[in-house]
Each structure stands twice: as structure tokens, then as C-alpha cells.
Amino acid sequence: MELKLKPAFFWPFNRTIVRAFKFSIGLTWQRALYRLLWRSAPQQAIEHAARRMLTPPGHHFPDAELRLMEDASLIPVPLVTGRLIGWRWGHRADPIVVLVHGWGGRGTQLKAFIAPLLKRGFSVVAYDAPGHGMTGGPESSLPHFLRALEAMLDHLGPVHALVGHSLGGAAAAMVMARRPQSAGRAVLIAPPASLTESTRRLARALTWPEAMRAAVQRRIEYRFGIAWSEFEVDRNTGPQPLLVIHDRGDREVPYAEGMRYVNAWPAARMLETGGLGHRQVLNDPTAIGASVDFIAGARP
Length: 300
Description:
Layout: H1 7-40, H2 42-54, H3 63-70, E1 73-79, E2 82-89, E3 96-100, H4 114-119, E4 123-128, H5 142-156, E5 159-165, H6 167-178, E6 183-189, H7 195-205, H8 210-224, E7 242-247, H9 255-264, E8 268-273, H10 285-296
Parallel strand pairs: 3-4, 3-5, 5-6, 6-7, 7-8
Antiparallel strand pairs: 1-2, 2-4
Helix pairs in contact: 1-2, 2-8, 5-6
């Protein structure tokens, strides 16, 4: 008897292969482009690379996240560059926890935290950073993330806690260091500790020479009028309690960067995970439970 398997049986595997193949082709093409530009037109290479660093990847909203927005109150917050779009779940009188997504993310990407926080008596606010999701805009960066979070906190007033993922975690820590009264505590999930080191990882992936990467850094520093050394975690600490959650196998932001927060911040502790990588931790019940306990004041 001949065994026949439906094509759909192989589809998830085939889809993974197709995505990996497209990523590989795209990466090879970008590496070749930057090599050519750096040799033939270095200034053009620097401008192109700077735009690359300031342009976040776009992602669609899954249906589950769109349905989640229907249960929330819309929060539009004025920004110099336009308007920040956010949402609020729960009662206005309850203590506020603000969710801050990472690079290329969206506020509802941290949706798994919402129900547990509501159950513990908090109201929850999430928003899309500039250049992301429904806030939109042509570009984004850590300074954009900082201005957006500061604008949201100006609108809400002091909040009970922040939960920040990746670049959103770095922004949350910096805002708390600059404005200690803005939030009482924070959970930082896979936070990068150095903007310079983050761009070095991107440069290695795209095989940029260090001279080119450094030139791009100077170009962006000049654009925003601030040195990247100002964004190092060692220069931005505060008295608030921090829970840092980081996966040992994180390939996007190394575990050592999370440890830099623990070593630099006086009231910080680490929750180490394994096998979750950079994003799956956002849906891990243990990590979420520990986060909610910490926010509520219990030691995880």
C-alpha cells in the first residue's frame, strides 16, 4: 500500500525553510551592497547604513491582538513628531503598569502580561513607539523610545511599574534613572546595556568594517546631538527595585548585558531562563508569574 501524505503535513516545515532561505538571500545581498558602497562611495554607504539603523522592521497585528484592543480605552498622547497611540485596560483608579515593547515590536506584543496584572488589581497601559505599529512614522531610535515613554508618563502621572522588553527595557531603565519619581519598580526583559555594543552586533551580521560602523555612529550622534556613551547602563542607575529576566541562549541581546544591569543597579536581581531565546520569554508562564509577583511586591 502506498502511503500518501498531504502537502499540508509538511507546510510548517516548508514555511520555516522558505523564511530561512529568504533571510539568507537578503542578508547576502545587503552584505554585498555595503561592501560595494564602502569601497566606491563611502559617504553614501554611511548615509544608507544610518537610515538602516533608524528604520525599524514592520510587523502586522495578529487578530488576537486586534481583538484585545477592542477591550481597551484608546489613549492618544501628543508628541512633537505627531501622536503616540496607546491603550488602557482595567479601572482608571487602579495602580498603573506600563508595557514598553522593543525594537520592531508593538505594545500588544506583551499581551500575555495584561490578564495576570488585571487579576492582581492593576490597570495596564501599552502603546506603540514612534516608527512602530499604529503610532507609525518614518524612523525610530532609542531617543525616540525615551521621548515617547516620557510623554506617556507625563500624560499618566507617576505609575506603579514598567515592564520593558529589549530596547523598551533599556528605555524604561533610563527614564527611571532620569526621573526617579516616575515609576516605583520595573521588570526588564532582555535589555541591551550598550547602544554601541548593539550596533556592533548589527555590524558583524552585515559584515560592516569597524571604521564604517564608527562613522555611522558619529553621523547619528551628530543628528541627535548626544553621545552614545550617555546611553550606557553604568551611567544610568536609580534606587528603584528591578527584576531583570534574561535567557542564557538569547542570540539577539547577550545574557551578559542583562547582568550588567544587575551589577550596576543597586536594587536589581536576575531571573535566568533557558531555551526561550529573545522573544518566547514574553509568553512564558514562569517569567510572567515572577514578573507579576515582583510588581505586586512579592519576591519571585
